[in-house]
Structures are given as structure tokens and as C-alpha cells.
Design brief:
By secondary structure, this protein is an alpha+beta fold. The chain has 2 helices and 6 strands, in the order ααββββββ. The termini are far apart. This is DUF4307 domain-containing protein.
């Protein structure tokens, strides 16, 4: 009588995979995970502190008050700028047509000593700017304001 064929003993799966692909990688220790979390948290707090202070250092805001179009080639824009007293500012003012295309553009200088008509010592100044247009405009707005370069 013959016995059925017995399969040859095979190596355990872990050993054969380890031989082929290398040993399993060790995970990070609890202390290493904690250190990474602390560094990431400190970096996040530092970034938030930098963002909040950098915005307050260049605190310039502007508000459109109104506009008028005396004729087809001119738009007058009224706006307010709030900045630190004694800071020279430049603002880009644009005139738009009915399809919101820019038909006029002007950069306006607001000197550091512009204090006329202000009750807060020059922090908020009101400006009226005439912008020449290439076609009739239907609105005028301030696009952006920034601190003027010292060389200007």
C-alpha cells in the first residue's frame, strides 16, 4: 500500500517574504511621535503669531465712498484711506464700464502729512481723484492701497 504524497515542508510566509523584500520596518517610538507632535504644534503657533503680527504692521484699509462721471472721458472717485499717521500711501483707482472692463486707471499718492479735514490726526483721509477714461464709465473703485516706497 502506498501513502499519499506529502507536500514538502515550506518556509513560513514571514520568512520567505522577509528574504525577498527585507525585514519589516520598525514603527516610530512613542517618544519620537510625541516629539514630532510638539514640534508641529510649536511651528503652527509660530506661524499663526507671524501671520497676525505681519498683518497689523501694514494696517492699511480703504473704503469706496462714491463716484461720479461728469462726462464720457472722466470719472471722479471718492474714497477714504485709514493708515498709521505719518505713513505715505499709494492707491490704485480704476474706472469700470458696464461690462466691468477697466477703462481708466490711476495710482494716487497720499503723502504722510495729509491731514486736511481729519478729526483723528491724519489716520483717516478722504480723497477725490479724477481718472481719465478711454470710454464712458459707470463706476469707479479703489483696487488696492499699499505703503509707498521711501524712494518715491
Amino acid at each position: 500500500m502506498t501513502s499519499p504524497d506529502q507536500p514538502a515542508p515550506s518556509a513560513p510566509a514571514d520568512t520567505s517574504l522577509a528574504n525577498r523584500y527585507g525585514a519589516k520596518k520598525r514603527g516610530l517610538s512613542a517618544a519620537a511621535k510625541r516629539a514630532i507632535a510638539v514640534v508641529a504644534l510649536a511651528g503652527g503657533i509660530g506661524f499663526m503669531a507671524w501671520v497676525s503680527t505681519s498683518n497689523s504692521l501694514t494696517d492699511i484699509s480703504f473704503k469706496d465712498i462714491g463716484y461720479s462721471t461728469p462726462d464720457g472721458t472722466l470719472a471722479e472717485v471718492d474714497f477714504q484711506v485709514t493708515r498709521e499717521p505719518g505713513t505715505a500711501v499709494q492707491c490704485a483707482v480704476k474706472a469700470l464700464d458696464s461690462k466691468f472692463a477697466i477703462v481708466g486707471w490711476k495710482v494716487v499718492d497720499i503723502p504722510a502729512d495729509a491731514r486736511e479735514g481729519t478729526s483723528d490726526g491724519g489716520r483717516t483721509v478722504t480723497q477725490r481723484v479724477a481718472v481719465r477714461t478711454e470710454s464712458p464709465s459707470v463706476s469707479g473703485v479703489v483696487d488696492d492701497c499699499w505703503i509707498a516706497d521711501k524712494a518715491d
